[in-house]
Amino acid sequence: VIAELMESFRCVFVDSVSNSFYPVPQEVIGEGSAFEGWRPRDWDGVYRVLVPLNPPPGHGFHLELNSAGQVSARTFSIRVELVCTFEKEQLGEEPLCFLHHSRKELGWKQKLSLLETLCTSSYLDVEKTSCWFFQLVRSSWLQVPQWHSWHVVFQPCSRSCRLQLSKGRKSLTVEILFGVRQEDSDIFVVSQPTEAQKSSSSISVSSQPTNIISRTAWPETYAVAEAKFFQHIARQLPCESLHLKSLQLFTCILRGTGFSSSTWKTVVMHVLTTVPLSRWHRSAFAWRLWDVMALLDRCLQLKRLEHFVLGNERLPAEISLPPATLRVEPPNLFEHLAQDLAALREALQAY
């Protein structure tokens, strides 16, 4: 239902921005556990989707890594630059160009550049973009085929857009995030932190609270790469969903032990790259659970749990990463345990 709705929205979006200089929405991507095939018990019931944005004609996006913040929760700024729209092979009417024509020459034919609408000091502003995107979604509703089947309540947020859809007793909450792809990879920068980055468990990946992230800071997300990894694994396992069942079990039955769902997910993904996939069959399910527990034990003893995407040389070739990401030293998600003996004792007791 959500996939069909978002594809309908996208078609309307593209038509709406075709004669403007606002970002161009691309194909929508489902993000997080709900779209990966498992859900932790503390899942908030919100289906999150990512709408990648491409620069409009005459503009370019350049990502700049912010030095502040933790390595495992990196943020970027998106610098917007004007680029020449002239083409040597161009036939017919000469195009107007922000760089080569004056404001007077551009005249009434030319609308404001992206720098003048959604930017702050040449950088794409998350809150301005969110406000524009919310208006775009709201004005597009009556143009999508689903409008007559669902009652919708729009819930604007400073860094995203939420829709509350209802039809009879059925209700769905969709949160639309927007972001920019890093080069041609499966890594994106997005308008707000992902599920894992928002986790507040004392034994999970810590991150900056949403309310202190600046308006021009875009958190990096690995959710698309992780989803592609799960899809890659499912095609090779004797039982295609066994890894998801194990993840579901840990996040639900062991809820309350202090380990966040993002920690369990990271450990399970590492086990999938170390235990031969031929061993992931139903009769060996209990042994695979012990493999996960054994790896968690080893990580606690070493006080080190490596980030699964950043710097991981075992990722399948079909998962595309920016060259700079491949050279990054894998961040230690348990670094805080090495620095806080009380937190380490708590983690060992929880284990």
Keywords:
Beta Polymerase, domain 2, alpha+beta, single chain, ten-stranded mixed beta sheet, 351 residues, 19% strand, two-stranded antiparallel sheet, globular, Poly(a)-polymerase, middle domain
Q: Tell me, what's the shape?
A: globular
**What is the CATH class name of the largest domain?**
Alpha Beta
Structural class: alpha+beta
Provide the CATH topology of the largest domain: Beta Polymerase, domain 2
Major β-sheet annotation = 10 strands, mixed
* Run of helices and strands: HEEHEEEHEEHEEEEHEHHHHHHH
CATH architecture field of the largest domain? 2-Layer Sandwich
Pick out the low-confidence regions: 88-92, 200-211
Count of the separate structural domains: 2
Question: Total helix count?
Answer: 12
Percent of residues in beta strands: 15-25%
Cα end-to-end separation: 39 Å
Q: Count the E strands.
A: 12
